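Appendix B: complex inputs.
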Amino acid sequence: MEPKTIKKIGVLTSGGDAPGMNAAIRAVVRAGFYYNLEMYGIYRGYEGMINDDIKKLESKNIAHVLERGGTFLKSARSAEFRTPEGRQKAFDNLKKHGIDALVVIGGDGSLTGAHLFYQEFGIPAIGLPGTIDNDLSGTDSTIGFDTACNTAIQAIDKIRDTATSHDRLFFVEVMGRDAGFIAINAGIGSAAAATLIPEKKMPIEKLVERLKARKKAMKQSNIVIVAEGGKSGGATEIAEKIKKQLPSYDIKVTILGHLQRGGSPSSFDRVLASKLGVAAVEGLMQGKYDVMAGIINNKIVFTPITKAIVDDKEVDEDDFRIAKILST
Ligand code: F6P
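Resulting structure:
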């Protein structure tokens, strides 16, 4: 597509926050300044677009944000943006400020919004994958995923100390919505006794067998990682089922929850976010619209948003096999 002349870019973060979003915003804004563009921060995601919570950004706004968790632009899940009236209000506000392109940092819902907006109003938009869930196609890793895995693993290490001291069986629930990426990494990285992910069914009887075998093998501690979106329920439900079958076990449940969304981004996420931030601005200038910038095999790749959001990225079969080998 023939590139439109772009002078003013608006950047926003939307949906669940993720460590590295600040680093991505900084890179977008810095790259914009490098190319002599005016940069605007849209606060609270699409809500801010609708409510005209839009401010011109200066260099000082992005000083010392790269290393901070969360998003200084704040984030929200906007119900109003899902309505045509909400999107019209948002468009009118962008026009008022003369914003002629957008960088949307968020997960599948946020990128869907950017796609719809581009279809309806023709505002050039590029998405950046910002979610701890890693459930977007078109990139090997999403911004925030690596940090979330590190956070989960560090927390599980601590749980292991107390689990070992008391000979207890722990069920630890990790986030990921309906994807098992955090779970499988946490399982491999923390030597879990088993990892339950939404993509693979593990019958309760099999888990019981595995736990019995580990007892026989005199394993010191048992930690089972449960992805939150599993069809047989979360950690609490699974623990209750196991308790019925293994009543002599001392069982505890820990739900890691939003802990996984916070914290200073890892070096991996900082670099990923920085590369993608620059790619977003350069992509817009080259006329790449309605796409998500990602990194595959260390190369920047632009994938149509409609393809990136399709729910077809799956936990690697090999990762699952490795987790199984290492837990027996
Ligand atoms: O998409 C990121 C995520 O943290 C998911 O892993 C989780 O299911 C969801 O967001 C939680 O959303 P909220 O913060 O709105 O409760």
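The chain has eleven helices and eleven strands.
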